[in-house]
Amino acid sequence: MLTQLQILSEVEAAASCLNSRNSENEFVGLVSELERTWTSRDQVSSVCHTYMEPIITARSSIVRALMSSHKGVCEVLHSTLLKKSILTRNSQMLGNGSGCEVALVSAVKLDVPLCLKWKTRLEEAEVAKSQGDNHHAMQVLDVLLEDMQKVDLNDEQEVLLCQVIHSYGCVLMDSLAKPPRVVITEYFNRAVDILEARQESGCQNVLENSYHKLSVYADKLYRDVRQYLESDIIQSKRENIARSRKEIEKLENLSVKAQDLTEKKDLIRKLSILQKNVDIDKNVLADLKKEQEEFLFLALQNYLKCLLVSHDYDLHLYRTVALWTENLENANINKLMNTYGIKIKSHKFVPLLYQLVARLTCVADEKKQLFLKTLLNILERICLEHPHHSLPVVMALANAHADDDILKDSRSSSSRKKLQQAQGVEEGRVQAAKLLINKLKKTELGSHVAELEKISLAYLVLANWSDGADKHNAGDKVRIPGNQPLMNIKNIQYTSALTRPLVLQPSGHYDPPVISSWENQCMFVGGVNAPKRLTVKTSDGLSQFELLKGRDDIRQDAVMQQVFGIVNELLCKNPDTRERALSVRTYKVLPLSQKSGLIQWCNNTQAFGEYLIGCDKKSGAHKLYYPDDYNAQKCRQLMTHARLPKTESLEGEDILNNFHAVFRNFFFENYPSTS
Asked: Minimal CA–CA distance to 538: which of 524, 519, 520?
C-alpha cells in the first residue's frame, strides 16, 4: 500500500512538471529537482527490493513519458536505470531480484555524456562480479581504465576513476589474479591516495568503501600469514633450525679438534652447507614475520581511518580492538592507536567497555606503557562524554573485592595474602580502576562519580544483607532496615536508574530522570543466594523493579547481553532480517563487583519452574498434560534414594517412565504458527 501511494505521489509530482513548464530550461530544471527529491527519499529510508523495485520501475516510466516532450532529460532516465540495476544487483547477492541486464541495455542506448557512459560500463563490471564472472568483469574494467587514462579527467571523472580502480582491486582480490602487494599498492592504495588528496564531500562514500575493502583485505592477508606461521610446516622448520644449530656447534668443536687437514676441510664444508640452510630458513621466517607486521599495520590503519570517516562500518571497532589487544607490546600498533584512537568518536567505544576495562593494570613493563597510556586516555574520554554508560563499569572493577570487605571475610591473613598473589593480574586491574576513579573525581564529573560510588557501595551492603531468617520462599516480602545505607541516600542529582536502558547519544548530551528513592520493602524471588527484588522510584514519577543479586558473579551474563546486542546490530543491517523485524530481546545486566550485581526486572515473564510444576510444585504443565505422572517432589525423593549403591539405574528408569517431558507444549500454546 505504501509503495503504491509513493508511486501515485511521484506521478503527481511529474505531472506538475508538465503543467508548470514555461521554457525548455525551466522544464529540465524541474525534472532535475524531481530527481533530487527522489534521491533524498532513497537516502533516508531502507526499503527492501520487493517494495523499492516497483517504485524505481515507475520512475523509469515517468521519465520516459517526460522524454517524449523533451529529449534533454535522458540523463535523469540514465540515472534512474543505473539505480534500478544497483538495487537489483544488491538484491541478487541476497538471493532476491531478477536480472540487471534490461536496465543496462536501456542505459547503453541513451545519448549521454562520456562520464555517464563510463558509469554504465562500471555497473556492467559490478554486475558481472556479483554474478561470479570475474573474467568478464576484468575485461570490462581493463578496457574502461585504458579509455579513462587517454582523457584529461575533470573532478567528477577522477572520482569515477577511483571507483573503477577500487572495483578492479576487488575483482583481483577475489580472483587471486595478481599478488597481494600489487593489488594493495597499484589499486587500493592508489584509489585511497587520490581520494584523500581531494578531501571533498562528494567522494566521501567512495573513500569509506575504499578504507573498508582495504582493511578487510589486509586483515585477511594478516590472518593467512599468521595461520601459516602457526602451521606444522613452520613449526617443523623451527625445529630444523634448532637441530641444525646444535649440529653446527658439534661440527665447530670437531673442526677445532681435528688434526687431519682433509678431515678438517670436510667438516668446514659440511659446516658451511649447514649454516647456509639455517640462514635460508631464518630468512624465510624473518620475511614472513615482516609480512605479518606489514599486513597487521595496514589492516589496523585502514580500520581506524574507516571508523573516523564512516558510521556504516562501526562494527569494525570490535576487530580493531581485538588486533590492538592481541599486539599490545607492538610499538607501531600502539603509536597508531594513540594517533587515531583519540580522534574516533567516543560513543563507538561504549559497546566494548567491558573488554577495554578488563585490560587495565598498574603493573606494566616498558613495552606496555604506551598501550596503557592510550587505553586510559580513551577510557577517560568515554567516561567524561558518556558517564551513565561507562562509570558503572569502571566502578564495578574498582569495587571488585568490596563484598569481602563488607562481610569481613573470615580467611586468615596468610591465606588472604596467597589469594591476592594468585590474583595478581586482577588486583592490578582493581588498582588501576581505583586510580581512574580518583582521577575522574578531580574533573567536572567529580560529584557524579562520588555519588555513584556511594550508591554502588550501598547496593553491595544490601546485596550481602540477610534478615536472619534461615530461608525465604519465593514471593516473601521483607522490610529493609532503616540502617541500610541505601535507605538513607537522599537528594540524588546525577545517577539515573542503573537498570533502565539509556539510549546512547553520539553527541554526549544526556538528561535522564535520576533516582529519587527506593521503597523500604524488598521481595525474595527464590534461589540459592536469595536474590532480592527492589523497587526504585525516579524523578519522572515512574517506579520500576530491579533484581539485586549477592554472592553471584553476573559478569558473564553482562557479556552475553553484549553479544546479543551485536547480534541485533547484524540483524538490523541485513535487509531480510530487518524486514521480518528479527531481534533478540535483551535486558540490562550491571555487575557491581565480582560477586554482586543488578539485573533489569523483566515484566510479563514466567520462570521455567513455574510453567512446569507451578508455584505450589504440584500443578503446572506436568499436571495438565500428564495428570497420572509422579509430581516433582516425589521425583526429587527418588533421586535422593538413587544415590544409594545399586539403586541408581532402577530409580532413574522409574522417573523417566513416570515423569514425561512437557516443555515443548509451551511453544505449541504460545506460538501455534511458525510465522
From this structure: 519
